[in-house]
Structure formats: C-alpha cells, structure tokens
Amino acid sequence: MQLVSILLDVVGPVFLVAAVGYLWTLRGAPFDTKFVSLIVTGVGTPCLVVDSLSTSGLTASALGSMALASLLCHAMSLAGGYGFARAMRQPPAVYAPALAFPNTGNMGLPLGLFAFGAPGLALAIGFYAVASLAQFTVGQSIAARTFDLRALVRMPLLWAVLAGLILAVTGLQLPSVAARAVRMLGGLMVPLMLLSLGHSLARLKLASFKRGLIFSLARLFGGFAIGWAVSAMLGLGGLERGVVVIQSSMPSAVYNYMFAERFNNQPEEVAGIVVLSTLLSIVILPFFFSTVM
Q: Which domains does the chain have, with CATH numbers?
C-alpha cells in the first residue's frame, strides 16, 4: 500500500505531465524545443533557484553538504560509468556520461518537491545546481572532446546559485515586487521541463535494446547505491539523505542525448539509455522512495 501511495502521490504527477508532452508530440502538434529550452535554462530555472534558496530557511551548512554530496555522487558515477563501459567493451566517451549524469532537473526537482515539500525542493536544487554545472562542463566536454570555460561563465544558473546563496546566508530579501515576479517566473520551470521531457522521449528511438537495458539498470541501481554510500560517508540522514538518494537514482538525463546528437557521438545508443532508464524508473523509483520515506 505504501508503494502504491508513493507511485500515485510522488511519481505519478511527474509522469502524467510528461505524458502530456509525449502525446502532444505524437499528435504532431508544434513544440518549439529551442524556445522552451531557452526559457527554462535562461529564465525559469534561475528564478526558481533564487526563490527557493532565498526562502528555504536552510543553513549554509545544509546547502554546502548537498553541494558536496552532489559533487561526490557525480564523481563516483563518472568513474563507475567509465569502468562499466570498459568492462562492457564499449567506448566510455559514449556511455560514461549517460551513466554519470542523471535527470536531476526535470524529474529530480518535481520529485523532490512532491515527496519532501519546499525544504526538499531547496535541497534538490542545491544538488541540481552542481549537477547542471558538471553536465554542461564535464559532460559536454566528454562528448565534444574539448573544454570551454567561457560556457560556464555565461550560464545564468551559475549566477542564480550565487545570488540565491548570498540571500540565504545573509538573510537579505528581494523587494516584494521583485520577489513575486521571480516566484512567478520560477513557477514556469517544473511544468515546462516535464513537458519538454515528454516531447524529447517521443522523438527518441531505441538502438540496441539489450545493451540499452543493461546500461539503464546500471544507471538506476548504481545511482541508488552511490546515493546511499555518499550519504553514509557524509553522515547525512532524514531529509538530506532522502534527497541525495533520490536525486542520485534518477534516470539518464535527456541532455546526454542532446550532447551526443550535437557532437555526433553515437546518439542512437545514448537515446536508448535515456528512454529505457526513464521507462524503467516508473516501476523502480517507488521502491527507492520506500527506503527513504
């Protein structure tokens, strides 16, 4: 009964909204991916970060622990993904990012909110901020086989994290008019990201089912194990541990496919991992939630 409740109350809404984007795309209705992506990354996410961090009431220590946990989870996942790809005799440059960078944004953030409330969302954003910065630097560099520091400096998310942390630590507040506008714009992020996820999944195609299934299971269960290991290493418990474990257990991020497509890095193989890990997570995530709630 508890698993059914978790599925309906936490995982269910995420997939229902994503299903709208999926069905919308199957009908051939217009969906401007570039516009949505720019709104989400340039406006919605930065505003949500500033609003959540500035109003969370979380201490600098809690946010620091979450950032460190995210860094460790991604480092361990990247190392594990590299070793697993080598063991499977597959190119690490193709498969390691798909195993290392989970969907902590358009799945992890809504799940953090639905499962743990506003404090959980704030912690999940702390985890996501590091994850996003890592994916857009390390993840993109692996796919492109080059590194561009200027891309990191130009990311609105970086400056939003800094602004949100300053407000959270100092106790300063935005003027009420600005705060309300930021909150309204931040409210765009979750539904748009979920619609975009459904749209992306409707366009992806599977390549090797068997290989994709193996790597998908490695992403989900490997991330789950790493989340618990990092929580134990840092002595995290309760809400913090729950957020770390769930964020680390997310399916492979759609951006892994987008980078593979952009740099012609066997995108069909990465697409298989994104699609299968997302579909498998519908069944597996409730069991992961039952260990931390």
A: 9-287 (1.20.1530.20)
